[in-house]
Design a protein that fits this description.
The radius of gyration is 18 Å and the shape is globular. The chain is built from three helices and 17 strands. By secondary structure, it is mostly beta strands. The C terminus is likely disordered. It folds into two domains: 127 residues, no CATH class; 86 residues, no CATH class. The chain starts with 5 loop residues before the first helix and ends with a strand. The protein has a 17-stranded mixed beta sheet that branches.
Length: 274
């Protein structure tokens, strides 16, 4: 694959993640599907991605213009890292029960699908340069443009999105769409024509889900009709809410009486040259 500019990516991620405490590396998920044009960076080393490669807390996944990665985490959370994306499993801590105690991920560019698993909604913390998101039983896509503005599209459940000044909004609706930029979250409705153009430009998985496994697809009825043509856009339900403080794991091992952790760094993939 074309070499990706890892140094600028890592610098941007360092600025985004400076407040996240370091977590012990443990196996938190696995690669289920991958197309050519994706790689893994772990502790400064580069690996080719392939199905069944383990994902550790702290791993960075990068894709080029053709790459896509489908991830399955131990709590059944599913994430798709789309083309031209940078994704970090920043601070994920699992209990032996298979549920997460903390699930913090970060992105600085690209397009993503997120399908929540068996963990409590309060443990999820999804960060971009212009927004943070928390969830409740949710399926949604989000994307970042060249300015790193964040666009969120919900399909099921509710997403709380916070922007500059910690102004937060709860978003629900089928194909409900809101944006967040340097000035914060914009809660105003998006016109149907503008929304269709936005979906076409930034959200490839709303155009077609054929490349995704069955567990990574969701109901797009609010975005498209059954023939794949533009459907009637359903309005977003957006209401202002108070920000929810992020979950902090207890001091020590970061695990409760369940114990936790899936062991060491197995299945690292094929190492790439620098």
């Amino acid at each position: 694959m074309t070499d990706l500019p890892i140094r600028p990516v890592l610098a941007a991620l360092a600025a985004l993640l400076f407040a996240i405490p370091a977590a012990a590396q443990e196996v938190v998920g696995t690669v289920v599907g991958v197309t050519e044009g994706a790689r893994l960076d772990r502790d400064g080393e580069r690996f080719a991605l392939a199905p069944e490669v383990s994902i550790l807390s702290g791993d960075i996944i990068l894709t080029d213009a053709t790459g896509t990665v489908q991830l399955l985490f131990r709590d059944e959370t599913r994430v798709v890292v789309g083309p031209g994306s940078q994704f970090v499993a920043a601070d994920i801590r699992m209990r032996r029960s298979g549920r997460a105690q903390r699930f913090t991920v970060a992105t600085i560019g690209g397009t993503f699908r997120f399908l929540s698993g068996n963990s409590a909604g309060r443990v999820y913390d999804i960060r971009t340069p212009t927004a943070t998101m928390g969830i409740r039983g949710t399926a949604f896509d989000f994307a970042l443009d060249r300015r790193r503005d964040t666009t969120l599209v919900t399909f099921l459940g509710e997403v709380q999105i916070c922007g500059a000044g910690r102004r937060c909004y709860a978003v629900t609706g089928s194909c409900a769409t809101v944006r967040a930029g340097a000035g914060g979250v914009d809660p105003r409705p998006i016109e149907a024509e503008d929304q269709t153009a936005l979906l076409d430009a930034q959200f490839p998985f709303t155009r077609s889900q054929e490349a995704l496994g069955a567990g990574y697809r969701t109901d797009l009825a609010g975005c498209r009709d059954g023939d794949g043509e533009d459907g009637a856009v359903r309005p977003a339900v957006v209401r202002a809410v108070s920000p929810v403080p992020p979950t902090r794991p207890p001091q020590g091992s970061g695990r409760d009486d369940d114990g936790g952790g899936g062991g060491g760094a197995t299945g690292g993939g094929s190492r790439l040259g620098d």
